[in-house]
Amino acid sequence: xxxxxxxxxxxxxxxxGISIAPAVHAAEAQKPKAIVELFTSQGCSSCPPADDILSxxxxxxxxxxxxxxxxxxxxxxxxxxxxxxxxxxxxxxxxEANGERSIYTPQMxxxxxxxxxxxxxxxxxxxxxxxxxxxxxxxTSVHDNMFEVSxxxxxxxxxxxxxxYLVKVSDRAxxxxxxxxxxxxxxxxxxxxxxxxxxxxxxxxxxxxxxPLSEVGGNGVERIVVLVQKMVNGNPSDxxxxxxxxxxxx
Length: 250
Description:
Blueprint: E1 4-5, E2 34-40, H1 48-58, E3 63-69, H2 85-97, E4 102-103, E5 107-110, E6 114-117, H3 121-129, E7 137-143, E8 146-152, E9 162-176, E10 186-202, E11 207-212, E12 223-232, E13 235-244
C-alpha cells in the first residue's frame, strides 16, 4: 500500500556501541495500563503542543508515554536530532494495519490501535478513559550479562501471533532548534525513543527471550521498555503486555 505523508495543523492546544557495567539494575517500575506513542518532529510547527501533552502524560501514573521522532520533515530545513527511519516505518505500519493511506505529525496512538491528532486533548482523554489492564505478564531481568524478557499469560479469542519489541529510551533531552519551522526555540522532550527492535515472537504460554547486554544499550539510552504487540498482516496492532525498567545504569 502506498502511503502519502501529510501534516495536521492544529491551532492552540541508531545504536552506538558502548561499554556496559557488569551490574545492571532492571527493577520493574509500576506496570502501565495505557501506552501512548507520539509520532512527532522537531521540524513540524504543529508538534510543540503535542510534545507538551506527552510530557504531561509522562508524569501520570498508569501511563507509559513514548516519543517517536520521525524523519520525513527533515527536508524543511532542520534534521530532527532524534529522527529515525525506524520510527517512520513503525508509523507507516500502523497506518497499514488501520487501513489509512497517509501518515502525519503530530499523531498519537494509544495501546496500538486508537489513533488521533496528538494535540487533541478531548480524544486523548476519551482514549485513556477506555484503557484496561493488559492481558499478558511481562518481566525483565539480568543474569550473566544477558538481558532476559519473560512473557506469560493468555489472550481470549483465536490464536494469534505477537512480536516482542525492545525499545531504548532517553528520559529527557533538551534541543535548541536553529533552523526550519521551529527555528529559535528551545524544546525539552520526554521519553525519547532512541531505537526499537524486535527480539522474538510470542504465540501463547510462557516464553523467555535473551540477548546480550551489549545489544541493550546505546547512545543516550537510560531506560528499556519491552512491548508485546499483536501483529495484523505483519503490522503492529493491539499492545498485549509491557515492561519498563527503572533507570538503568550502563
